[in-house]
Amino acid sequence: MRGFGDLLRNERYARRFFGAYAQSALGTGAAYVALVLLAYERLTSPWAIALVLLADFVPPMLLGPVFGAAADRWPRRTCAIVGDLVRAGAFIGIALIDDFAATVAFALLAGVGTGVFKPAVMAGLPTIVSRDKIARATGLYGAITEIGYTAGPGIAGLLLLFMSPSTLLLVNGATFAVSAAVIAAIPLRAAAGEESERAAEQRRSLLHEAREGVAVTTRMPLVRTVIVATSAILLFGGMVNVAELLLVRHLGGGHVAYSVLVTASGLGILMGTLASSRGGPLRMLEGRFVAGLALFAGGMIATGFAPSVPIALAGVVLAGVGNGFVITHERLLIQLTVDDALMGRVFGIQGALDGGAFGAAFLAGGAILSLVGPATVFFIAGGGGLLVWLGARAALVSSRRAGAALEPEAAAAESPAPMAAASVDR
């Protein structure tokens, strides 16, 4: 935490950005509760909840590479502002228009805003802090996100004593408008600066650049490994989200125990995120990423074996710590190894795979639960996590060996073109 204090004291642009992001993250966590309540009231069906929640993942899942290409072509500050304003309008629309079809449409629009905002911010974040503070800034971003998810619903519980769900969504829309206004005064930009903006005028279509980004990313062994491994972990983590309530009931707990379990999982992710902000050499970051995969798998298996709720709490905390390690180190490894001209597209691809993983997880979790008990779902997630750990570990070792073998040849070669340079991991 001392490192975060130093970051916020000495980096004025980071201080402004994280202040704006903190209030919108808390608003997002609170709006989650209000959105679920409002959707159910308007359709009175469990499908209402499923459709509204899934709507947030669909746009990044389908259009993530395009959103990332936009962040590489146009000023990242502009993309972040547009993303915030789109979400502000979407939540205000949900609050004011009492129609379920409109609710789903506006929820999809909010997903578009999120899909535009995230790659622009993750790619632009290294430009508002000094290089030695990138790890702290990335860790703080993840920590604030988790605090929003964990504390936001509690704040909603208090606010809903005095206001309606619609009013709470209006408040959330206002938090995005505030964030957009603050970001407008922050130089969130591509590291290449004006030169990249002039080059953008000579580029081909946005869709072509999105496809180009996918092609180049698949040729980057380190980045390819961490993105695929992280998405796989999110797939298994999403599956157990469906099974958590049934596991608590199987162990003799009630609604309070379930709430505590969900909170414990969020706190574990927060702990892992905070512990991942130290930075270090690339090899060390890779090692921590792999360690996070192992912690996640171990926590899932321990939860499946748990004979009581308290033991299950320890298991989900351990898995959460691993999850926090994985997510934060994935972002760091991308920021430190990908050429700036390609970084937005890489984060867009990451968002697409993550969205697909969550969508598949919700469907797979429900299907598996109809066949087996909740503990078995945790065993499946843990076993899958072990396979991901073994595969990622082997892939990273192979990548290091290939990089070492190519070093003499690379030293003798001429300087590559900008896009070719982006494909070099080390």
Topology (SSEs and partners):
Blueprint lengths: L1 H9 L1 H32 L2 H10 L2 H16 L2 H21 L3 H25 L9 H26 L5 H19 L10 H7 L5 H13 L2 H30 L4 H21 L6 H24 L3 H29 L2 H30 L4 H39 L5 H4 L5
Outline the structure in words.
- The protein has 426 residues and is an all-alpha fold.
- It has two domains: 203 residues, MFS general substrate transporter like domains (Growth Hormone, Chain: A), CATH 1.20.1250; 222 residues, Growth Hormone, Chain: A.
- 83% of the residues lie in helices and 0% in strands.
- It contains 17 helices and no strands.
- Helix 4 packs antiparallel against helix 15, helix 10 crosses helix 15 and helix 12 runs parallel beside helix 14.
Order of helices and strands: HHHHHHHHHHHHHHHHH
Number of domains: 2
* Name of the CATH superfamily of the largest domain: MFS general substrate transporter like domains
- Outline: globular
**Ends distance:** 30 Å
Outline of the structure:
83% of the residues lie in helices and 0% in strands. It is built from 17 helices and no strands.
Keywords:
426 residues, Growth Hormone, Chain: A, 2 domains, disordered C terminus
